[in-house]
UniProtKB/TrEMBL annotation:
SUPFAM superfamilies: P-loop containing nucleoside triphosphate hydrolases (SSF52540), TPR-like (SSF48452). Residues 516-602 form the DUF7779 domain. Residues 288-431 form the NB-ARC domain. PANTHER family: NB-ARC AND TPR DOMAIN PROTEIN, ZU5 DOMAIN-CONTAINING PROTEIN. Gene3D superfamilies: P-loop containing nucleotide triphosphate hydrolases, Tetratricopeptide repeat domain. GO terms for molecular function: ADP binding. This is NB-ARC domain-containing protein.
Length: 1048
């Protein structure tokens, strides 16, 4: 029996994937569910001309049922690694190989079916597996041997033609090999069952003891959360604002399945009878995931469920979940409705971080029964942090998404595939749309009804397509017969070229929208062309209504004309309109967007004109930005609202090919929004946008002297500096290029006219940026020389009150040079001054102000004031949660630093809480690998000190593996100190993430005149104590800190 470790599942999956590839079964790797296996088997049967497919499925069905529990157990044991579904790929590869030998097909299927039927019933062991290393080891042996058996059969079936195959297969050597592998599988099964039964007996025994113990009052839970709903709130309540869809058809089976999943007890129990004990979400709180293609009806099915079962719930909350910000806005709304917050504002700058946590606590603690609907989930990273950790009632969650594997299915997490409507349901939906606002429209006769069914067939039963066509037919008064003939002609070419169900589906979508778009009025077509380039989920009507009277857009000549244009598009089910809030906003389904873009690709001039008009609309809504890169807090909310539209325009211009050649104005906007983007922590998106802007300049043959060249280099350098050592070369290269470009631009200004103060500031900005870059590289002396030169210029231009941002930069950089030289007092004073100037320039909560305060807190730490540093960092964290939210690199860096400070002070419980939060796997993609790895290293020490040696070693080894890789890749920036392992991790991260080691620490150690030691609970120094050493705390420095607390 192999020794179980957390890495063994990953290694097993890697080996088995490679085995499939080696056996030329690459397609099998993509089979990730039983439904996909069934579809693949159907295709295989058709390919080989086998007419008895249902018989084959029935033949294998008993064994496949055992295989389903096997796959579920693999998912549970491997902690829901998506590759747990490899079992379906192996089955597909086996059956496909077996079909090559149809003469002996039944015998081939028996080879695997016999083994499947011998499988244990794994369903009863799902919760035991993750907690038992012994069971894991036996179970991995089953998995390993079973997959080997499948591969062995596949290889043998591939070796020989059908004639004589059976004789070959059961020849002496192959037969012995198969028998030996099969016996290994069976032996592993027996060992697993014995170990599982033993574990069950142990659980029953200790469970009875535990129940007896928990009856003792000493072990009753304390500090139980209370339902803090504001008094006067009248239940039931709901945030569902969509009106009933009178066209809704079918889905009765799906609705019943959702009901059985979410509310198994019927009738619904009264609040008094609901269980009061808390339970872990995902174990006892049912969650239903509605998954399917865009336009398939996921949202409408969820909405219909809330309508039919609203009496079962005290509260129904509907949240648009396509982005983290929209989820946060939904939680802020809920907080307001429940009276849990002083404001129901949902602007990004409001207290959304607090609202999320407050609502989660309410969901976990309330006695009310609630239903939480997350509509159109794009990423489980965005969703995971918003789910309540536990519940006390029979509440539930519904998720709608186009994505697969948002959460793995389990006993309480059920995924329901929303599929095409049947031809009868599709015909019913079509007639419902044809009814309009009048009485129900029924078929004139059987022939017409059959035509409607045929239309449903041609459209693939897609609700979005059927409602679109129905809206078109209702408005044009086309007969069902005439439209069916037209649709047949329109689809004919695509039917010939289509391959497979999925591709055919895409084609039918294109056909549907081609027809729907063809007959639109000029106004309606012009508007939908613009909407195709914008963020589809939230298009403020003010983007258009603020420009009523515009001579460039015909449909905006008057408000009635604009309203009529929207009415036409809504009647044809092409756009949606939400009037529940202010401002009103439009929505357009992504599938409709893509269809419009596909249609526009046929007329490049019209496509480019639509891009230009959409861009002009958004550009006119954007604020003017500072020409000298000053932070502008008043522009923050406007950028937050319209930047998504700019990013969508950028993406829509490159699909479909050929790409639209972007304009210089577009490059200017991408450059203008760069300061907002890096202040908001959106580093990756900013780099992509700026590189697009650079590409535009290249396409237009723009020289180095153009102001945008310097701007783009400058902003890429600033953004790259926030990412860590992997971008350090790029950062410094861009800063050099920015200096060169800005000098060329300034020279041109000198030749053409008078040089203004702002021109001078722009020239020197790139010098101060270089000083920031040198701080990152540890060259404090050179950074100091450059920033002092900048300071001389600042004094010529004005006082700190005149140009606070320039003096902020000076104080920020010089504080690092002071600390590196061992001048604690000066370092703390200048970092405090930079924060004060940040408040003057940008306000108390702006990210730039927080960055200065973070530096101030880091200097307090280096001065030995760990508790003072912690207090300051906790304040910074609170502000960052409010302004940029949890899923943001600045917030995660704060959590990591605070966790390290708590560990330094011996408060290991609080330290672990912070590290668990920032190291959540769903947040890994939010911040750079370097900072994430340092947090892992720091957390490993917390685990070690808490006695969790195995987990500590795991995190430590993972961190060291990344460190070693970076040492090989970036030797010019990283240096190992054998006496201080934390040092190289510090060198990997950017300066704005905070440091615990380095030149600043070394200077302070040598200048220390008194010793202040700290020990862990076990008496050994933590990595931070080893790194920082002992510092004197001068009374004057402590006095400065007191002043700073009063200032902030």
């Amino acid at each position: 029996m192999a020794r179980y470790t957390p890495e063994t599942w990953a290694n097993l999956f890697d080996r088995k994937e490679q085995a499939l590839e080696d056996s030329r079964c690459v397609e099998a790797i993509n089979i990730l569910s039983f439904d996909e296996l069934e579809d693949s088997l159907r295709s295989i049967a058709q390919e080989y001309g086998h007419q008895g497919f249902p018989d084959i499925v029935s033949r294998l069905s008993p064994g496949l049922n055992y295989l389903k529990t096997f796959q579920a157990a693999i998912s549970s044991a491997s902690q829901y690694d998506p590759r747990a579904c490899l079992v379906w790929g192996f089955m597909q590869a086996f059956v496909q190989s077996a079909f090559q030998h149809q003469v002996v097909l039944e015998d081939m299927l028996s080879l695997i079916d016999e083994l499947n039927l011998a499988m244990p019933e794994f369903g009863g062991y799902l919760q035991m597996l993750p907690k038992s290393p012994q069971l894991q080891a036996h179970f991995q042996d089953i998995f390993d041997a079973y997959m080997d058996y499948c591969i062995l059969c596949i290889k043998h079936m591939q070796k020989s033609p059908s004639i004589g195959f059976f004789t070959y297969l059961f020849g002496s050597d192959p037969a012995r090999e198969l028998k030996r592998t099969k016996e290994q599988v069976q032996s592993s099964m027996r060992k697993f069952e014995r170990a599982a039964k033993h574990s069950q007996k142990q659980q029953q025994f200790f469970g009875s003891i535990g129940e007896h113990i928990m009856q003792n009052p000493l072990f009753q839970p304390v500090n139980k959360m209370e339902d803090r709903t504001a008094t006067g709130i009248q239940f039931p309540i709901s945030t569902v604002t969509m009106p009933r869809n009178k066209f809704f058809q079918g889905r009765n089976n799906e609705l019943q399945y959702i009901r059985e999943t979410l509310y198994p007890t019927s009738p619904a129990p009264s609040p008094m009878s609901r269980p009061a004990e808390q339970s872990n979400f995902g174990e006892d709180a049912p969650c239903c995931i509605l998954q399917g293609l865009g336009g398939i009806g996921k949202t409408q099915t969820a909405h219909e469920y809330t309508r039919r079962h609203k009496s079962d719930y005290d509260a129904i909350f509907w949240i648009r979940a396509d982005t983290a910000s929209s989820i946060a806005a939904g939680y802020a709304e809920i907080a307001g409705i429940l009276g849990l917050a002083d404001t129901v504002e949902v602007e990004p700058n409001e207290n959304q971080g607090q609202a999320i946590d407050t609502v989660k606590r309410w969901l976990s603690s309330t006695d009310k029964t609630w239903l939480l609907v997350f509509d159109n989930v794009e990423s489980d990273d965005d969703l995971n942090r918003h789910l309540p950790p536990s519940i006390r009632t029979k509440s539930a969650v519904i998720i709608t998404t186009q994505k697969t594997n948002v959460f793995p299915s389990s006993e309480k997490v059920t995924t329901i595939q929303i599929k095409d409507l049947t031809r009868e349901q599709g015909a019913d939906l079509l007639y419902a749309c044809l009814s309009g606002n009048d009485a129900s429209r029924t078929p004139a006769n059987e022939e017409e009804e059959e035509c409607a069914r045929k239309i449903s067939d041609l459209l693939g039963g897609l609700p979005l397509a059927l409602t679109t066509i129905g809206g078109y037919m209702w408005e044009t008064h086309d007969s069902v017969y005439d439209f069916y003939e037209y649709l047949k002609q329109s689809c004919q070419a695509w039917e010939v070229s289509a391959v497979g169900p999925a591709k055919q589906y895409d084609k039918t979508l294109a056909t549907v929208f081609e027809i729907a778009l063809k007959e639109l009025s000029e106004d309606a077509r012009e508007l939908i062309n613009l909407l195709a380039f914008l963020n589809p989920d939230h298009i403020p009507e003010t983007l258009f209504t603020d420009r009523i009277g515009s001579p460039t857009l015909a449909f905006l000549t008057s408000e009635p004309r604009f309203s009529e244009t929207i009415r036409v598009l809504r009647n044809r089910q092409l756009v949606g309109r939400d009037t529940s809030g202010s401002p009103k906003f439009l929505t357009i389904h992504r599938t409709v967007q893509m269809a419009v873009l596909h249609d526009l690709s046929r007329t490049p001039n019209v496509r480019r004109d639509a891009y230009m008009r959409a861009f002009a609309l958004v550009k006119s809504a954007l604020p003017n930005v500072s020409s000298i890169d000053n932070p502008e807090p008043n522009a923050w909310s406007t950028f937050q609202k319209y930047v998504p539209h700019i990013l969508y325009i950028r993406a829509r211009c490159v699909w479909p090919e050929p790409s639209i050649k972007l304009t210089m104005d577009f490059a200017q906007v991408l450059s203008d929004m760069a300061t907002f983007m890096w202040h908001a922590g959106r580093f990756s998106e900013n780099l992509d946008a700026l590189k697009t802007a650079e590409q535009v300049l290249n396409e237009h043959n723009i020289g180095i002297e153009h102001h945008l060249r310097g701007n783009i280099h400058q902003h890429i350098g600033i953004t790259a500096s926030h990412i860590g050592v992997s971008m350090r070369d790029e950062c410094m290269k861009r800063r050099d290029l920015a200096i060169e470009a800005r000098a060329a631009s300034h020279k041109l200004i000198e030749l053409n006219g008078t040089v203004t103060r702002d021109d001078e500031i722009r020239l020197w900005n790139v010098q101060s940026d270089m000083a920031f870059g040198l701080v990152h590289t540890g060259d404090y002396a050179k950074a100091g020389v450059i920033i002092e030169s900048c300071h001389e210029q600042y004094k010529k231009w004005g006082t700190p009150d005149d140009i606070p941002f320039e003096y902020l930069k000076y104080n920020h950089i010089i504080s690092h040079t002071h600390m590196a030289a061992g001048r604690q007092k000066e370092a703390i004073f200048t970092s405090q001054e930079s924060a004060r100037l940040g408040q003057m320039q940008s306000g108390d909560t702006h990210p730039m102000t927080m960055k200065c305060r973070f530096t101030f807190a880091n200097h307090l730490y280096f001065a030995g004031m760990v508790e003072e540093s912690l207090k300051e960092n906790l304040t910074i964290l609170d502000v960052r949660l409010q302004t940029v939210g949890e899923m943001n690199p600045f917030t995660l860096e704060s959590r990591s630093f605070i966790g390290a400070l708590y560990a330094e002070l011996g408060e290991l419980d609080k330290a672990e809480t912070q590290f668990i939060s920032c190291l959540d796997p769903h947040k890994k993609t939010v911040w750079d690998e370097e900072t994430y790895t340092r947090a892992k290293f720091l957390y490993s020490d917390v685990l070690r000190r808490r006695g969790q040696t195995a987990k500590a070693n795991q995190y430590l080894q993972e961190a060291r593996n990344v460190r070693d890789r970076y040492l090989r890749m970036y030797p010019q920036w990283l240096e190992v100190d054998p006496d201080n392992e934390l040092g190289v991790f510090d060198q990997m991260v950017c300066m704005w993430s905070g440091r615990f080691t380095g030149p600043m620490k070394q200077k302070l150690e040598t200048s220390a005149s008194s010793v202040m030691t700290g020990t862990t609970l076990q008496g050994s120094k933590s990595p931070l104590q080893s790194a920082v050493g002992s510092f004197p705390i001068a009374e004057e420095v402590a006095s400065l800190t007191l002043q700073s607390r009063q200032t902030f």
